[in-house]
Amino acid sequence: MDVSLARRNLGLILALMLFVMIPTAKAQVQRDSLAPTPPMGWNSWNKFACNVSEDLIKSVADAIATNGMKDAGYQYVLIDDCWQVSRDENGNIVADPQRFPSGIKALADYVHSKGLKFGLYSDAGTKTCAGRPGSQGHEYQDALQYARWGADYLKYDWCNTGTRNAEEAYATMSNALLATGRPIVLSICEWGKNKAWLWGKGIGNLWRTTGDISDHWSTQKKWPDGSCCQLGMVEIVDLQADLWAFSGPGHWNDPDMLEVGNGGMTTEEYRSHFSFWAILAAPLIAGNDVRSMTPEINEILTNKEVVAVDQDALGHQGRRVGKNGDQEIWSRPLSDGSRAVILFNRGATPTEVAVSWTQLAYPEHLPASVRDLWTHKDLGKFTGSFSSKVPSHGVVMVKVLP
Ligand code: GLA
User: Ligand 1: which residue has its CA nearest to atom 9?
Assistant: First the structure.
């Protein structure tokens, strides 16, 4: 082959490569742009499981719009498993006509009329975890249906997927959603089984990192089917410690939905739970009955200073920077140059916990103001370190600003 022909062939090959690569790059930009900060909202599963209906979803949307949650940033109202019952003769997914007599479109319209966004759940396998029809083989058809109904968010589960390749399965649904032209956040829910943090960026906006959370501080209880083991809140936190590098604007580690207010932990423990989700840049998806929560639980979910840490524009996930037995220090760099810091006491008795500036990667001589994000008080200027008494199973969460 003469040189000019070889050059022309090379040019053609390069042009072809660009042609193939550009849509992928474009898809990535679109996908990441759908969740510049971790999504905030409410999901039916943790409290209501399969007991979902249009009445429930409407009354939850009413509550979120009026109880301070919308003002605090909660946006998505999400129906989890069990809204779907079958497929019609054309393969279209059918919602439960008893529980959703007005249809999903009318329900999405209602949620939107409250200034909120609406989301649904499906599964990459033949059936959902609760045995309802999954989306395998119907991805484009389902995505189009969700878009026509007005969905803004899809949680996509991993039950009954057989030997499917997870990256391929989630990419198929991600592309199907993008192809509808409607912006729809994609929540990857494969429980960390296929390490979605290694491939999820550009495919989903958030990915579960663990099995399901249970409403306990800590537990090693077996699941009803005898398999090991349920995860309490602290086991989930421990599993996040090494994943911080994978998270960032548009693509977040998801340590599962909140249990705050569901009754299995003390108020102190729920405050710790919420503080950790914020320092971890986790999606804040409430999972309690927000129509009837106590003022203490409402105050936790709507603490604007803690929510601001979660939603910080830098999008850096916090990490553990100190551990001494039951005492831990977690730190998260924020966009104004400050650090959000958690002094954590896992132990059974109150104890003094100290953070040094070295742990925060600040020079020791640097004076910095410290503000308590739960009492909403400025605690003064400190140099080199800060310490505070921390209750059992509690946190002191501060912002350290040089
Ligand atoms: C899985 C998910 C849960 C929930 C249920 C629904 O267990 O991890 O979050 O969606 O399925 O069946």
Answer: 212
